[in-house]
Amino acid sequence: MSGPCAAGHAEAAAPDATTGTPPAGPSRSVVVTRPGAHRLVRGEVPVPGPGEVLVRVAAAGICGSDREVYDGHRDAAYVRYPVVPGHEWAGTVEAVGPGVAAGLVGRKAVAEGFRACGVCERCRSGETSLCAGGYAETGFTEPGAFADHLTVPARLLHPLADDADLRAAALLEPAAVIAAAVRAGRPRPGERVAVVGAGTLGLLAVQLLAASSPAELVVVDPRAGRGEQARAFGASASLAPDEAAALHGRFDLVVETAGAPSTAASSCLLARRGGRVVLTGMFAPGATGIDPVHLSLSQLELRSVFGAPSAAWSDAVRAFGIGLLDPAPLITHEFPLERFAAAVALVGSGDSAVGKVLLRP
């Protein structure tokens, strides 16, 4: 069962009351007050407002963009200090605000991060990640999940099965991004497919793309250990970038996930003429540009993905629910909130042994 309507037949909450019992006592949160500075704050448990739910966080993943927030490297238009980071999370609904279905209380769930307006032309056409109503996102401009509790709009909630592993479900946000990339790439059975990068996004991409029955599924990454893990998830081969250079022009579909300075350009070289390239990595200024002559003469179809629309979230939640997607093996480190500094230091450290790092309130 997935999507905000999954609990739609539950008894509605009273229009002027909060349903459920928010826990007594303090609720902790990690607040990044400014780049390079944070503190663990203890305050009252948030009260869900109209149309909102209160979630007890079970696990929250630390993303490279969270490291950017902490270091002060994120574009100023996409962060608002002070902020509680944390946009990759899973938890249990403990209370609902006025106007929200009471049946959601006690449900395991994840939620979309983009606070799309729902009424602009882009939202009404289903492209919620392109909302024209202004940027707002959990963990960047709105309080996130590096906390014991958070409140989110109920319309963004995706309920999970009662037996769902919330530790693994914390990775459904990056899985939704990859689901958006797969939607954009339109893989077909029997195609040759390449995934550039074997980090969290890349390894999730391998799992979803393997389900399309490709004739070939090659992962490109300089880290041998990540290549082995990719093969365990269904990749037919793993290659270092210099080895992959011999395969330029081979692939029907290339999904780029690394966001390294050269990977946008190299991904386009891997695609065959008339092939499709989807960029999901977050590139820093100064990254190598894509050759427009090659792009034109090769007649490539090029797409980029930033976040995920609601439909991609539903895809990811369904794939997780039926066991097609298993994020748990990607998790390598877990820390309590009190050790946020040590946890965020691991992310982006370059240590090949570091996969997904979780905070466990």
What would you say about this model in short?
This protein has helices spanning 64-71, 121-124, 166-169, 172-185, 200-210, 224-232, 241-244, 263-270, 292-298, 310-321, 340-346, and strands at 19-20, 26-34, 37-44, 52-62, 88-96, 108-111, 149-153, 157-159, 192-196, 216-220, 237-239, 251-256, 271-279, 301-304, 331-335, 356-359. With 361 residues, the chain is an alpha/beta fold. It folds into two domains: 4-171 and 327-359, Medium-chain alcohol dehydrogenases, catalytic domain (Quinone Oxidoreductase, Chain A, domain 1), CATH 3.90.180.10; 178-304, 3-Layer(aba) Sandwich (Rossmann fold).
CATH superfamily of the largest domain: Medium-chain alcohol dehydrogenases, catalytic domain
Order of helices and strands: EEEEHEEHEEHHEHEHEHEHEHEHEHE
Question: If helices are DSSP runs of H or I spanning 4 or more residues, what is the number of helices?
Answer: 11
Give a count of the beta strands, DSSP E runs of length 2 or more.
Answer: 16
CATH fold group of the largest domain: Quinone Oxidoreductase, Chain A, domain 1
Overall geometry comes to globular
Low-confidence stretches: 1-14
Output the CATH class name of the largest domain: Alpha Beta
Main β-sheet: number of strands, strand sense, barrel status?
8 strands, mixed
Structural class: alpha/beta
Mean pLDDT: 93
CATH-derived architecture of the largest domain: Alpha-Beta Complex
End-to-end gap: 26 Å
Number of domains: 2
Percent strand = 25-35%
